[in-house]
Design a protein that fits this description.
Two copies of one chain form a homodimer. By secondary structure, the first copy, chain A, is an all-alpha fold. Chain A contains nine helices and no strands. In chain A, helix 1 packs across helix 2, helix 1 packs across helix 6 and helix 5 packs across helix 9. At the A-B interface, helix 1 of A face helix 1 of B. Chain A binds a DNA duplex through helix 3.
Chain lengths: ~190, ~190
DNA sequence: GAACGATGTACAAAATCCGTACACCGTTTT
DNA sequence: AAAACGGTGTACGGATTTTGTACATCGTTC
């Protein structure tokens, strides 16, 4: 497995993304930048969009994977935020090259996984109507992804640590509270 | 060119060398550490010794290559010294795992190239008897390699910048002076 | 002295990478 | 308008690299 070539492509891509917007980057540039053949690029990725997806997915995976409790999930977020900060211009260029819709789709995908994990951990022992459960998750998903979207849109100024810690506390507390209310309504309905 | 696999091997090796002495490191460990097949190691290197040589040679090359004048040569040295400092334990483990003879052979190889370049630049226009010239180069070669040897042996405490700058000045001045004396003796002899 | 783990080697198969060539498209130049 | 240019995506054969498996050897351990 020449895992390393693929990594080199990603690195070259991030490097270029720190210099210019996505649509100014060509396959040839990437390829020249890490000294491989153009076909090798196409062997690993369908096109530049696929490469972008791969990079983002990789980051996402690093956030979500193996982070099952709230604390380690926070760690994951902080890691990701620092990655974003150290590639500020890259994130900026992605943010401005990709449509809002696509970005939100990505972010909500992550947020959903995150909230769902949190909820799973919290309401494991409780009974909550599926509908309420989904509604609540949906709400928090939007809140979370919206926050991240705005954070990037506003130039990633807020401190990741502080922001994420307090967001984490908020989530942990209010998700369980909301779930509880949902449970009570579910009980009421049943009577 | 899977240049990247070879690099990964080197990195894994350096990482391990930061943890334990050379003779405690196995091929399997290296190979496991970067997720490749054991044969892939043997495809790139004959054995661990060859890998060690490769690593050192690579460093040497970075020092000597493209550094033709005294100033840029100093830069090269400082770079190498910083590499050594950031891999302090690795250098320490190499230092203690390899025989003094071998180490000196390496160091003198580098030193010779360095001094010879310096001398070439300085006595290009002068006439110096070959014998004297070689003697002088030999002397400075030993001085230089000995200094480095001791620097490592004493735990690389001295500041690289300062050390190398003053050593550079000393070399530049005294090599040319020595060469001059050599030239005068050569003239004397001729009469 | 048997079991073990590491080494170094051999070889065939699989995976990866490269060179070349081609069709396509949008932009720029003439 | 036609030609030239530069980028994209694809195809394919051949070269290079990586892997799996197996084996003989050697020093250590039990």
């Amino acid at each position: 497995m020449a895992q390393f070539t693929k990594k080199a492509i990603v690195e070259a891509f991030l490097k270029l993304l720190n210099e210019k917007p996505l649509d100014k980057i060509t396959v040839k540039e990437i390829v020249d930048n890490c000294g491989i053949n153009r076909n090798t690029f196409y062997y690993h990725f369908e096109d530049i969009r696929a490469l972008l997806t791969f990079v983002i997915d990789g980051e996402v995976e690093r956030v979500v994977a193996k982070h099952n409790d709230v604390e380690s999930l926070e760690e994951g977020f902080i890691e990701a935020a620092h990655f974003a900060l150290s590639n500020k211009r890259a994130v900026y260029h992605i943010y401005n090259s990709v449509s809002r819709e696509e970005l939100e789709r990505y972010l909500k995908g992550i947020a959903e996984e995150v909230v769902r994990r949190l909820a799973e951990g919290l309401d494991a022992a409780r009974e909550v109507a599926e509908l309420d459960r989904e509604l609540i998750i949906h709400f928090y998903k939007c809140g979370l992804s919206g926050m991240v979207m705005d954070w990037v849109g506003e130039g990633m100024k807020a401190e990741p640590e502080q922001m994420i810690r307090s967001l984490g506390a908020l989530l942990e507390g209010s998700v369980s509270a909301a779930m509880e209310k949902g449970r009570q309504r579910a009980i009421k309905k049943r009577l």
